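Inputs:
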Amino acid sequence: MPHTQYPAETLEKIKLLQEKFKASGQDLSSYLEGLLYADYLTYWDYINLDTLLSLQQPKTSFKDEKIFIIYHQITELYFKLIIWEMEQIAEQEDIKAAFFKERLERVIMYFDHLISSFTVMWKGMEKDQFLKFRMSLLPSSGFQSAQFRVIEILSTPVQNLVHLEERMDFSGQESVQELFDNLYWQFGATELATGEKTLTLKNFEKKYGKELKELIVNYKDNNLWGKYRQCKDVDQELTDLMKSMDLKANVFWPLAHYKSAVRYLQRNPEDIAATGGTNWQKYLPPRFQKVVFYPELWTEEEKDNWGKGWVVKEIFGQEEI
Ligand code: HEM
């Protein structure tokens, strides 16, 4: 068939392909032959659906355990999306406010999804089933979510993650080991009586400790706060987005999560022990840890009241606890 019968745009595409393959020393005709034999892409292959749907493996026969697994997986995927955006902010050499804001808006949107969907946990499982199947999951805990720690490290100078009582004494110039040993969550999973780390924490550190310490070093200057300071056209809108992200990550998500712990684990006068072994009532509420990614953006009063008010109203439905 004479080539003049082909539409001009097809010939143009072939020409472009020829140039592309020639540039890397490849033969177009061989690739065209490959195209001839290749199967059509399917939806299920593209998103690895069979693999994805094979990853929900309960440890017990309680029906609601599947909900627990799937919702954790959904959360981890959202965490992955959040980290993906943060990495892109960190990689920008000469970051512009417009780019920064667009990415931060996505991060905030993902947190909003996570905060509102937490109802799947606190409303969506039978308490009796939960209290039984959780015993088969010891000593694992969401506390061991490495992506949650990655989000923290990528968000703020690491000294802001030091345990509240020591935070004022840290400048960020300490060795990475010293900083790491004093992170707030290290204290959350230490047995008060003996000072021993819980098995949940020991296992976590064994698997992720090295990686997290490397991340602390690599993101010393390129965490979100560092990029905010480097950005030359910061405006009020960007500042407000930083504050919004701080609240979503450190108050609203932790409170939505805490609400689940209260729903399932609170049994006055004695509380049910957490799977990770923390004193969860003193550990989980944001007003105790007071993790603030961007302390410079808040007033002293706002920081003093971090996490208060909302917790009382939303979780306990009363003015005081
Ligand atoms: C019924 C649902 C849930 C309950 C009762 C619950 C309970 C707890 C408790 C008691 C802790 C304190 C650590 C421990 O002693 O284990 C904790 C920590 C944690 N959980 Fe959950 N959790 C639930 C769902 C989730 C989900 C869906 C995620 C999503 C990944 C998650 C992620 C975390 C994280 C990241 C921490 C550490 C928080 C921090 O260090 O500030 N949890 N959880």
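The chain has a mean pLDDT of 92. Flag for discussion at group meeting.
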